[in-house]
């Protein structure tokens, strides 16, 4: 079977997976590729990794278009994703409404599962939040850092720690069995990121890449996007 190659931030993995059968029925193509920290995915494209389609942050897609790696006319916003807190399904949900609540929750956790703090959108934000709260040094030994949010959340779901929590994109939390989306970050610490799709200039299958973008962003898929953690 012919496949469409994707390089995507982990935030879109659940949505793409949810549309794979519809895409196959429409085009006869399967979907292959990589999902991970957006910075790493962008660098893979720059290094020549074959890809028909990229789904990354709006800011990164704009840069890749400027670098003539993505067709500017193809850029289409998929939706916004918030960075949120996660707990194992068997653990009580967290109540985090203020800065003090967030500081207390992070201090009280014996393991904090996060994606790459240098290359991923959510991981960079977690590092910034810990600095803002003044507890980066205090909790450093409890940080469990993984290459991407999906891996971090799988590890959280399997964690044997007593009071573990996670922080990554809401979409990655929702897509992971055994976890509960526990709430947004409080005012002053929240992050909502727009994700955008685009067809690469070296796409082997540009027509099918455009068809997948239409599926991802179509009005008739709004309910699926919302269930997967995307907002308008």
UniProtKB/TrEMBL annotation:
Superkingdom field: Bacteria
What GO annotations for molecular function exist for this entry? Answer: molybdate ion binding
Q: Could you tell me which Gene3D superfamilies the record lists for this protein?
A: Periplasmic binding protein-like II
The residue range of the signal peptide is none
User: Which biological process, per GO, is one annotated for this protein?
Assistant: molybdate ion transport
Query: Which protein are we looking at?
Result: Molybdate ABC transporter substrate-binding protein
Species whose genome carries this gene: Bradyrhizobium nanningense
